[in-house]
Each structure stands twice: as C-alpha cells, then as structure tokens.
Prior knowledge:
Blueprint: H1 6-27, H2 56-68, H3 76-92, H4 99-107, H5 129-132, H6 136-139, H7 144-158, H8 162-179, H9 184-194, H10 200-208, H11 223-235, H12 240-248, H13 254-269, H14 276-281, E1 284-286, E2 292-294, H15 296-308
Antiparallel strand pairs: 1-2
Amino acid sequence: MPAITPDLRERARGCLLGAAVGDAFGMALEGAPLQPVNAQVREMRQGRLPAGSFTSNIGTMLTLAEGLLESERPSAQDLAARVEAVRAYRLEGARAGSYAGFLVRMLGARPGPAQPATTEVTSTPDAAVLIRCLPIALTTLDNRFACMALARDVARATHPHPDCTSGSAFATVLLWHLVQGMAPRQAVQHSLQASCDLPPMLEETIRWASTRVRDTLANGNQVQQIIETAIWGLLTTASFAEALTRVANLGGNAATAGALVGAWAGAAYRHSGIPADWRTQVWGTWPPRGGCVWREKDLLQLAERLVLS
Length: 309
C-alpha cells in the first residue's frame, strides 16, 4: 500500500471533486455546438439543471463508491446492478415511489451476502460507463491489476462492448497513476502499456489524441470519442481550468467528457488546483428524490474514506 501522504490525499480529493465540477460545468454545454475559441464559456452556467448541478453521471459514481465502502464488498455484478437501479429510478421519476422501496423491488435489497441482481445490458459503446468506475482507483491503490480487473468487470456487467470494458479499465488506471503523482503524459503512457486488451482503434485513438486539431474533435456518446477529447484536454493544457474549459466547449456530450477530464485533471492538479468559485458552486442531490445534498465537503470526505478503506 503506498504511503497516504498529504499530496496523495490532495490528489484523491481533487479527482472526485474534479469529476463533479467537470460534470456540472459541461451540463450547461450539453448538446451545444463547438464554441468559438474567442467566445468559450468559462464559468458555471444554467443548462437543463440549475448552475453548478451535477448530473446522473456523478450519481452513478457515488452509488458505486458507496458500494465499495461496505464491509462486505458486493460483487462486480451487484455493484453494476445498483448503478443501473439508480439510473432506472431517475427514468421512472415520480412513478417509482421511495428510493428505498424502488431498490427493494429492483434488486430484492437485503442485508448479507450479495444477491443475484438483474442488470440491463447494452451492446453499444456508451461513454457514460467510464464515469461510474472512477472511484475504484482510490480503493485499489496498492494493486494496479486489481484496479483494472474490477473496473473491467463492473463495466462488462452492463456494457460488454470491448470499448466499454477495456476503456473503463484504461480510464480508471490512468486515474490510479495520476493520484499517485505521475505526470499526465507519463501516466497515459504507463496506462497504455498496462492495457493490453485495448481494441486497436481505441489504442490508436489514445496514442494520438494529443496531436488532434480542435476542429476535428467532438464529444460524442461513444467511449472512443470521450476518451479522445479528455486525453486531448489533459495533455494539451497546464491547469485544471484550461483542461476542462477546452473539453467542455467542444459541446456535444459535454457533461460526460467534462466529468472524465475533470477527474483526471483534478488528480493531476490536486484539489487546490480547482478554481475556488467552481468548487463552492458544485452541488447535487443523491440518492435521487429526497436524498442528501452533496457539496464540496461531502465529496472530499468520500475521497478520504475511499483512500482509507
């Protein structure tokens, strides 16, 4: 287990908070076209949610994080099922009733060993799967292989497409390297070397992402597109604010892309490197409908718990 130094703690705090900040910042640019270079959005704005609100991307991340903290850790299949239950609850809206009751109906939620759970499986390379796996990096700091294996298994339970499984493992182990203090470019190279099962097209995308021209990039809905823009933002900038601004202003699936580059850049530049006004503005309610309001201090405390688990 690596030493839990003040620097590692700062990077761990930065990654979870950075993901939430990136998601909230990108939310206002969701579905927007590429913003002109001289007119980029540089502050939190209202979109489909109030300014500073994180989306279900972060809700799924928090769901997985809480599962990782249980004394008897659920299986990858059950962790994935819980995430899908939260997503389904949001889609059901008022018809779902109470969150606790909905979980009982969906999962047969009972104490004790992990129960068989039904998960909705998709064969499309949906980029949203990348965000839920990120907390795994903080609970496996002593074992890079365990980090990648669990991320791969959680993704496979609901998103068996090779881009989703290997892409989730890559995104999580890159965060693992960054939290432990590795410089971004070096961290990408080490993560590529560790990811021996990457599909050839995804591997090439990662390898050449930093050389891409802005006008040729897009925050699409697929894993390859989001990993490409997030790596481009991470490796062509020198601060959290600039990395997030560049990626989110590509528009499209800006919340997911913002959450991913926000997590990576938050670890690279630490909690203190995230602009103070963005840190104080970010918030969200989880569990859905009647849950707790999460703000900066809550995300920092969760990061601490994950690191020490």
